Amino acid sequence: MVALSLPGRPRLEEPLGGRRLDVLLADLGLNPCEVIVTRDGRLLPDDAPLDDADSLRVHAIAHGG
Hints:
The protein is mainly beta and 65 residues long. The protein has a single domain, classed as Beta-grasp domain (Ubiquitin-like (UB roll), Roll). The protein has one helix at 21-27, and strands at 2-5, 12-14, 35-39, 42-43, 55-60. A five-stranded mixed sheet has the order 2-1-5-3-4, with no helix packed on it. A hairpin with a 6-residue loop joins strand 1 and strand 2. The chain starts with a strand and ends in a 5-residue tail after the last strand.
């Protein structure tokens, strides 16, 4: 299971089943235009393959004027 740190939510562990990051975000109801995801401090592209041993951090993007 992948460990996820999400803004404003308790830490979550999610089974991956070979999913890519974009699929995981959709399953969690997160808009990829509103968050960035890092693994070991490195930014992940939306099509990144994920592994059950991953520890991911989801960062909300602040935008406005």
